[in-house]
Design brief:
The chain is mostly helical. The protein folds into three domains: 77 residues, Endolytic murein transglycosylase (Dna Ligase, domain 1, 2-Layer Sandwich), CATH 3.30.1490; 80 residues, no CATH class; 137 residues, no CATH class. Helix content is 46%, strand content 8%. It contains 13 helices and six strands. Strands 1-2 form a two-stranded antiparallel sheet. A two-stranded antiparallel sheet has the order 3-4. A hairpin with a 6-residue loop joins strand 5 and strand 6. Helix 2 packs antiparallel against helix 3. The chain is elongated, with a radius of gyration of 31 Å.
């Protein structure tokens, strides 16, 4: 009887200890500081390896078998996904397992700024250490071939936006995403364009959008500037826009345009040539694309920078424009 009672007591103590340990496992946070901890689950890893790594790195005080057995019991041990995970303070082992099963990996942001050239974008991406570098040559023509677009010029063909990516993404993959995003947005916008526009193709609209992007950073001016350029094209007037000249100058541009530069003919000099330049000159935003396809109605054919907040003064006639130039540029009344 004593042996039986002792056995019952031992079993009871073991049961109570087991319940206590199980509850402690469920509620004890991992050893994570306030900044959080980036934990990597490598491809091919199983929960047993993950559990061991957590203990070896001092993140968990429990034996590796705790998490592994728990995962087997709830039938989730085989569902964990590889990737980088941010473990936040006060996270418990069961909560971490849910995170690994759901694949809640770290999403890194990359913002493509409107107005950059495609070459500038490629330089930025190729220097981003968060991306896997695969570009051996960062020249625009080579990169376009590398992303399977060898017949495309490349300028203006990447959509400015914030993209999120996970560890292991390559520079080519992010460029492909941005290129596809631009293609899809431009195609959709082209289907809803205004009537009687002087564009033969959506690519013409992309070229115009890039010019608008470089001419103004004021949202409400985009459609008005688009209207000026559209009216000029419709009446056979030169666009005469400085940003195209600058683009055509390439490395010769040193920060200002001289009269000589305006008279020097290049495929992008809209002072010497009629119509649109052969390609975009920068990466246009969605808003600039929309403005190019929905220009504001009006009669203005000219505009000049006022020197205030990046805004412009619009004029219907050359006489009025020259007056605005004297006022805002030459500071004469």
């Amino acid at each position: 009887m004593r042996l039986f009672l002792s056995l019952i007591l031992l079993l009871s103590i073991s049961f109570i200890a087991g319940i206590y340990e199980y509850n402690r496992f469920l509620s004890t946070p991992l050893n994570i500081d306030q900044k959080g901890h980036v934990f990597t689950v490598k491809a091919g890893s199983n929960l047993q390896k993950v559990s061991k790594a957590l203990q070896q790195n001092g993140l968990s005080e429990f034996h590796p078998y705790y998490l592994y057995i728990y995962g087997r019991l709830i039938e989730k041990a085989h569902l964990i996904k590889a990737g980088e995970y941010l473990i936040l303070p006060n996270t418990t082992l069961p909560e971490l397992l849910d995170q690994l099963v759901d694949g809640q990996v770290i999403q890194y942001p990359l913002t493509i700024v409107e107005g950059l050239t495609a070459q500038q974008l490629i330089t930025i991406i190729s220097n981003d250490s968060r991306l896997v570098s695969t570009l051996e040559n960062t020249k625009l023509t080579t990169v376009m071939a590398d992303i399977n677009k060898p017949d495309n010029h490349g300028e203006g063909e990447f959509l400015p936006e914030t993209y999120y990516f996970t560890a292991g993404m390559t520079d080519k993959e992010i460029l492909n995403r941005a290129h596809k995003a631009m293609t899809l947005y431009l195609e959709k916008a082209w289907q809803n364009k205004a009537k009687n526009l002087p564009y033969k193709t959506s690519y013409d609209a992309l070229i115009m959008a890039s010019i608008i992007e470089k001419e103004t950073g004021i949202a409400e001016e985009r459609a008005e500037i688009a209207g000026v350029f559209v009216r000029r094209l419709n009446i056979g007037m030169r666009l005469q826009t400085d940003p195209t000249v600058i683009y055509g100058m390439g490395e010769l541009y040193k920060g200002n345009i001289r009269r000589k530069d305006l008279r020097t003919d290049t495929p992008y000099n809209t002072y010497t040539r009629y119509g649109l330049p052969p390609t975009p000159i920068a990466l246009p935003s969605k808003e600039s694309i929309d403005a190019a396809l929905h220009p504001a109605q009006g009669k203005s054919l000219y505009f000049v920078a006022t020197g205030s907040e990046g805004r412009h003064a619009f004029s219907n006639t050359l006489t009025a424009h020259n007056k605005a130039v004297r006022k805002y540029q030459l500071k004469k009344k």
